[in-house]
Recover the amino acids of this structure.
């Protein structure tokens, strides 16, 4: 059973449903919703594509780590992370220490149908389907540290949310 104030932290590739499911979890549990990418963009004063273009991915990852530490300093949130937040070992440790980590997983066709050729996804530039396949392969073990994994392919956000709530009796 989970502590009422414990943070719920959603991880997974882009397009697995983190933002949508996080919003539903926050609404149903009374926790505050926090979107890490939005927090990073706010801290930078510009959009994520602009950060990548003007300062590069390395700067983005550094700011992401600082922002993650800040938002996880309290309790009672549902956090939707960016897909690559798990690449930093310090981020993984912070997440495990500060909440219940739930990995969302989806297949290539599901991810592609959800993100398509979204210009706000700089890591998909140059052919979304191929880039999704490459990222899934490169990150195939990156989400294994989570307390649990929930498959989202073929499920609605409501079904995924219900599965998480049932699993943790939140």
């Amino acid at each position: 059973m989970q502590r009422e104030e414990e943070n719920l932290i959603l991880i997974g590739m882009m397009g697995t449903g983190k933002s949508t499911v996080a919003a539903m979890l926050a609404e149903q549990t009374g926790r505050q919703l926090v979107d890490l990418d939005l927090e990073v963009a706010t801290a930078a004063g510009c959009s994520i594509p602009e950060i990548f273009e003007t300062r590069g991915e390395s700067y983005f990852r550094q700011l992401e780590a600082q922002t993650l530490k800040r938002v996880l300093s309290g309790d009672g949130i549902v956090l939707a992370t960016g897909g690559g937040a798990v690449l930093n070992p310090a981020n993984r440790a912070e997440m495990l220490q500060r909440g219940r980590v739930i990995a969302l997983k989806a297949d290539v066709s599901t991810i592609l149908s959800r993100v398509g050729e979204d210009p706000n996804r700089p890591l998909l530039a140059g052919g979304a389907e191929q880039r999704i396949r490459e990222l899934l392969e490169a990150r195939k073990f990156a989400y294994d540290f989570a307390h649990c994994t929930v498959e989202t392919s073929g499920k609605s956000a409501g079904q995924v949310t219900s599965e998480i709530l049932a699993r943790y009796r939140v």
Notes: The beta strands are 7-11, 32-35, 77-80, 99-105, 148-151. Residues 50 and 105 are 27 Å apart (CA to CA).
